[in-house]
Amino acid sequence: MYDIFGEKSVVSPVKTSENLFEELDFGFLGKMANNVLLKKYLTQDKYIILQRQAVFKTLCENTEFADFLENLLEKLENLIALKSNNKKYMLRESGNNERAFSEFRELLLFTECVDTVLQGKDKFANINLSTGFAEMFERTEGIAESIWYKNAKIYIERVAEELKNIKSVCLGVNLDASLCVKEFGLVSLNSEYYKTNSFFDKMFAKNVGNKEYICIAPISGEASSYTGYSLDVFNSGLYKAISAVLGGTVRKMRKRLYDILCDNTAFLTGYYADIKFISASYRYILSMKACGLPLCFPEISEEYAIEGIYNPNFAGNIKSRDIVKNDFSFDENGQIYILTGANSGGKTAFLRSVGISQVLFQLGLPIAAKSAKMQIFSNIFSHFSSQIRDINGGRFENECKAIMNFYKDITSDSLLLLDEMFSTTSSFEGTIVATHMLERFAKIGCKCIYTTHMHDLAYKIDELNAKKGIRSRLDSLSAQVLGEFCTYKILRKRETYGSLAEAICRKYGFAD
Fold it and tell me: Which of 396, 462, 391 is nearest to 430 (CA)?
């Protein structure tokens, strides 16, 4: 398959939990924030990550390239949509004339895509882009220089000019003695639109430019007034008549050119997903920079340390200077963290920021942080209890079902992001179940952040670290509170500040 990055090897996929991208929230990536596209590009291949980082570093130095990508992406979207619509025509026995005109529009869009790519090649030829971009430019140039394409483009542009000048048609209608339509046909193709006016305006108005183009009594002002079979019949007849006037050139073109051009449209449309990924990623990079927020390309390392990490979803909603940044690391004394702290203290936002950074890193993108050394994971799993919906059984049962979807796939090469797991049962029972599960994680040797209001769990750390067979040591994180105010700083301390439930109640007047 085509690859704009020039990746010839198969992308090594990363196993994820089903709702990972929704739970972490990639809204800042716009249209790309969906499971299918993000999962497609998520990789555990070190060399692919480095290759993509090199591409994005180059693009960051050439901001005009973003406009080129947006322009090409829009044209490719239109081309793909029209191509899909034309496939529907192939399934119909009728509508040959509509199909001919629609396929002609597809050919015209293809030539516009080729022109856009060639303009990009001329403008950005000196940029050290990927081999994939170079291949796209070279292959497009080869098509544009071929004899068949040059002749086809002349033919397409000539017919397009003829069609472009058609603004209205004049129909002749013969009536019978009862003033019912007996027959009607095409009288002329006009380069001006008709204007609705009265009979007296047509006869006496001095300011009317061409009185032949005034409609004295419209039959319908909206095409939607006629739908279904009657409209199809009318359009079919009209297309047939226009094609006849043009000497059948549209239908001849379809017969002679459509098949050969279709083979080449696949070449360009095959890049669509890649360009969409790059374009959305590029917008993310530019938006963070516009807010004055730091971005960095992580160093691939066995170490894991991030300085100044933040959640990119806050950009635009909070003043840049007010976005709290934290430091975080996995090391020999902490591979599994129990994160406790106040309600609305920033625990979930911090958890998401780590998860988002890991995904961005393994997409080959810069992360929202000042600097970073990061490890590549083959599995990234998340569980947010707030996302659990009661379907069959109680909330706790449904939570257990959700966890079991990835529980057996956890390995030492896994990152777990768990938010309020087992909070759907009592604190006493939740602590017991969570302790057993954390012990299993520690023996597997995975990395994990577990946010919880079960403060007793933090006091189990020494007990769990003393167990035999532990491969990942546990440590504690706390959301800092000063007085009754949350700072949103996450500190590596084995202490809790309480949940501030009373303070929150007073804030909203429940204590009055």
Answer: 396
Kindly state the tokens that stand for 45: 């291949």
Vertex 448 angle, CA 446 and 453, to 5°: 145
29 close to 285: Cβ distance less than 8 angstroms:
no
Number of residues that make up the chain: 512
Instruction: Write out the DSSP string of 134-181.
Output: HHHHHHHHHHHHSHHHHHHHHHHHHHHHHHHT--EEEEEEEE-TTS-E
Q: Which domains does the chain have, with CATH numbers?
A: 291-507 (3.40.50.300)
186 by Cβ neighbours in 10 Å (0-12 / 13-18 / 19+) ranks as middle
215 near 195, Cβ under 8 Å?
yes
Question: Alpha carbon of 93 to those of 31, 98, 99, 313, 403: distances in Å?
Answer: 36, 12, 11, 50, 51
Q: What is the pTM of this model?
A: 0.78
Structural contact between residues 353 and 289, judged by C-beta atoms closer than 8 angstroms:
no
Q: 128 versus 509: which is more confidently predicted?
A: 128
* CB contact at 8 A, 381 and 421: no
- Residues contacting 430, CB < 8 A, separation 6+: 422, 423, 424, 454
User: Which two structure tokens, joined as six digits, stand for 159?
Assistant: 């017919």
- In this structure, is the dihedral angle defined by the CA atoms of residues 316, 321, 322 and 326, taken in order, positive or negative? positive
Q: Which residues lie below 8 Å from residue 182, measured CB to CB, with a gap of 6+?
A: 174, 175, 176
CA atoms within 13 A on the CB side of 360: 33
Residue 402, classed as helix, strand or coil, is: helix
User: Which residues, including other chains, have CB under 8 Å from residue 48's CB and lie 6 or more apart?
Assistant: 5, 7, 9, 11, 12, 364
Per residue in 215-240, pLDDT (tens digit) is 666 665 554 455 554 555 565 666 56
